[in-house]
Amino acid sequence: MKKQESPNSGERSIQLQQQILHYRSELSRMQQQVNDAENQVKKEIIRNQYLQEKLNEALHTHTEQFEKEVFQLEKKVLKLEVALEEEKKRTTELRKKMLMQEEQAKPAVIEPLFQLGAHFQASIFLPQTEDDSLSVFGDFIIKNTGNQPLHEPMICIQISPLLFGSLSGKIIMQRKMDDTKIYEDAANNHWKYVYEDWRERIRSENRYWLQPLNESEVKPNELLVFSGFEISFPKPDKRPIQVKGFVYSKELPKGVPSLNHISIQ
Fold first, then answer.
1. Which of 11, 84, 204, 212 has its C-alpha lying 20 to 30 A from 149's C-alpha?
2. DSSP string of 137-178, one letter each residue
3. Which pLDDT does position 178 carry in this prediction?
4. Which domain holds residue 18?
């Protein structure tokens, strides 16, 4: 079995959390500046009102000096108002940026995906004489391409035409499974028939239903291989030969066909 680990996103998450703390500090500082600016504007408005009252009282006395002071105060108030608007804009932008960073820092929700791929890897040995048989040697390779484990894997090898050709390989019969020593010696990478009436299924459908002896779970990115099988076709005739593969699991009861098949014309 070959395993691959998913990328570690811990470092990226720490960086995002640090950025969020920085933005929170900046937001607090800007909010204080906004409050100070608002208080300053209020003071200047009160001062302006006071000077306006004094101007009215004095009428024409020192009119020119009062007007200059009022003009300067109005300019100062205007500048403060502009600065206040700019601080409010910066505060709003900082809030948006902080919310975006918080969203990115949240762990991604991964939807469960049950998926697999299977293919044949085989060699064909053609007969040298009319009495020789045609043989196919190969492996049937299954890979869990999803993000969730697949349980109770099972394969089906279908040979056509019917009643033509026989499959052999690392398949343990029930009587050998009853022998503890033989079973322990052969358990690694070996397979067994799924159904008790497997002979009848071969005769009626030419389908071989198999499941691994020791592998009840295939984790994401892991491989499951029915290795070293042989299919023999004695005295092949002119009919085309096809070998197809299907893979099933508890999560994929309808089965998944192999990406390729063996075809001999």
1. 11
2. EEEEEEEE-SSS-EES-EEEEEEESTT--EEESSEE-HHHHH
3. 52
4. 10-105
109-166 confidence digits (pLDDT tens): 778 999 999 999 999 988 887 778 889 999 999 999 999 999 999 999 999 887 778 8
> What Å distances lie between residue 179 and 175, 176, 202, 213, CA to CA?
7, 5, 25, 14
In the chain, how many domains are there?
2
Q: Are 160 and 237 spatial neighbours (Cβ–Cβ below 8 Å)?
A: no
| 2 falls within a domain | no
Q: How many alpha carbons fall within 13 Å on the CB side of residue 115?
A: 7
Task: Let me know if residue 86 belongs to a domain.
Answer: yes
β pairing state of 134-144 and 223-233: antiparallel
Q: What's the chain's average pLDDT?
A: 83
Going by the DSSP 8-state scheme, the letter that residue 127 receives in this structure is -
pLDDT of residue 30: 82
CATH number at 148 reads: 2.60.40.10
